[in-house]
Amino acid sequence: MSRLSIPGSGLAKGLAVTLRTMTRKTVTEQYPDVQPDLAPRTRGVIGLFEENCTVCMLCARECPDWCIYIDSHKETIPAATPGGRERSRNVLDRFAIDFALCMYCGICIEVCPFDALFWSPEFEYAETDIHELTHERDKLREWMWTVPAPPALDPGAEEPKEIAAARKTAEKLAAAQAEQATQATQAAQDASATEATPAGPDDPQGGEA
Ligand code: SF4
Ligand code: SF4
């Protein structure tokens, strides 16, 4: 079915759009005098929480730009018990990201199994020397201070395993400390009661100081 076109309707529509745009309030971002209001999940820069990194190399392997550089060495940990087995662990020597190559895809953050990488909304790190855009581990750690706190859990959500385990450990520790404190108080009370008891005539000490 062909549509009936009124002559000049296209022109009227075009003018309506023009008029609407002309009367709309213009918005000018006053950056850098006023900081932009960024979304919480803005991809500005990547922060490294080094303590969580096990040097598994997954992020470096999955990065499509090959812009994550990791160096490490192995360290032997002596056996915890006599006759036990020695263990070895990876120790991080270098962790760097070249933000001149990074395309901010977020794959490294997604694949990290140990929550060692995070997005920070910080974006003011332009450099005049491209080499400076390779951020080494100390600089990557500094970005962690600008990572926003995670959103709150849904009210009915199950408690995360890590938090549940930490809570149980803290509760056990508190109970053990309370038990120790009770025993110490009881022992102190027993000792003062013994001291307060007057010496009898048969007391070999004879009540002498
Ligand atoms: S965001 Fe993407 S490109 Fe950038 S370091 Fe991570 S995996 Fe590589
Ligand atoms: S994936 Fe995570 S734990 Fe593994 S090397 Fe990268 S940052 Fe470290």
Automatic annotation (TrEMBL):
The lineage of its organism: Bacteria, Bacillati, Actinomycetota, Actinomycetes, Kitasatosporales. It holds the Pfam family Fer4. This is NADH-quinone oxidoreductase subunit I. Its main location: membrane. It is an enzyme of class 7 (translocase). The keyword GTP-binding does not apply. [4Fe-4S] cluster 2 binds at residues 63, 102, 105, 108. It catalyses: a quinone + NADH + 5 H(+)(in) = a quinol + NAD(+) + 4 H(+)(out). It is found in: Cell membrane. It comes from Streptomyces bobili. NDH-1 is composed of 14 different subunits. Subunits NuoA, H, J, K, L, M, N constitute the membrane sector of the complex. Binds 2 [4Fe-4S] clusters per subunit. Residues 172-199 have a biased composition (Low complexity). Residues 151-209 are annotated as: Disordered.
